[in-house]
Amino acid sequence: MKKRNGFVTNSSSSSYIIGKKDDILPIDVEYVYDIIRNIYIEYYNQRDSIVQYVKDNTSIYGIEYIKTEYGYTFNCTNAKKYSKKANEIFDKLKRDLVAIGLMDDDFSDYLLYNYYDYDIDSHYQWWNDLTTYSDYIRYWFDLSNQTESGYQYDGNNCNPYFKMPFYIIDFSKPFVNEYVKCTGKEVLNWYFPCIEQVFNGIDCNSCKTSQYCGEDYKSSYMELKEKVEQYGLEKQNAYTTMLGMICVYAEENMLPEFIKAKLEKISVLCCGHMG
Fold first, then answer.
1. What's residue 176's pLDDT?
2. Same domain, 27 and 156
3. Secondary structure E strands in the chain
4. Percent of the chain with pLDDT over 90
5. Residues 6+ apart with CB under 8 A from 183
6. Cβ atoms of 1 and 264 closer than 8 Å
7. Residues 178, 108: one domain?
8. Count of domains forming the chain
9. Pick from 74, 101, 121: which residue ends a domain?
10. pLDDT digits (tens, 9 = 90+) for 14-49
């Protein structure tokens, strides 16, 4: 997996590109959704086991599972949050959980540190029932309290009027809009910030903002221009050639860190973005 240069670690939105155009085994939206669904099931199963273990051993570790204004989280009862003592307590808990097989060491930090369960009571069992991406969209659409007349979904483009934890876009399908959009975001620009200028024939000499660009940015423009010309790319076919086949998009940190880490493992590209 390769992160875009300048990856924003505290991003409010993120995307994950899965599968390449020349892959021997093609993938589609339902294939990727099934992967994510199983990651969520793994996440909740591990979370349940960890929470129960912590509750059963509160007197040993001094850690409780509480509800805050932000959601449910683990909390040290006898040490200040983020203090050295608290970190040592959580490290011991992590080692013990890994040792008894309740947690994978590679993803332990995402289950314990800065961990919150948002709206756990509302959506706890959804993954058992939502077996297809269409089921998933319908579930979140119904939660938005919109009328059926306002719902349009063609299997590829996102409806900007209701939010889901993530969206899945198939770049190989025809786009209804000029760009692939998810709630107003331009995916291709996230990975190639000057691609718009390339497609519009605006070079560094004529670009009004070029004075603020560094040499690496100008070099990136020239590399993109050469690639677009070499492959005869247009906006419609640039996504599969320059990025990949399937895009998983999420905004406002709606994905748990555990899910993000798993998605990064299977992505050919990923990107964090502010806004």
1. 46
2. yes
3. 2-3, 13-18, 63-68, 71-76, 167-170, 181-182, 185-186, 246-251, 269-273
4. 15
5. 158, 160, 163, 167, 251
6. yes
7. no
8. 2
9. 121
10. 889 999 888 877 789 999 999 999 998 888 888 888
Domain-terminating residue out of 92, 121, 150: 121
Cβ contacts of 99 within 8 Å, gap of 6 or more: none
With 0-12 / 13-18 / 19 or more C-beta atoms within 10 angstroms meaning exposed / middle / buried, residue 113 is: middle
What's the token pair of residue 171? 């770049």
List, for residues 113-160, the tens digit of each pLDDT value: 545 554 444 455 677 788 999 888 888 877 765 544 344 444 444 444
Return the structure tokens found at 160. 């900007």
- Note whether 25 and 49 are same-domain residues: no
* Type of residue numbered 66: I
Q: Within this chain, do residues 250 and 171 fall inside the same structural domain, yes or no?
A: yes
For residue 146, give the 3-state DSSP assignment: coil
Alpha-carbon gap, residue 238 to 172, rounded angstroms = 10
- Looking at the structure, tell me whether residues 106 and 169 fall in a common domain: no
The SS3 assignment for 59 reads: helix
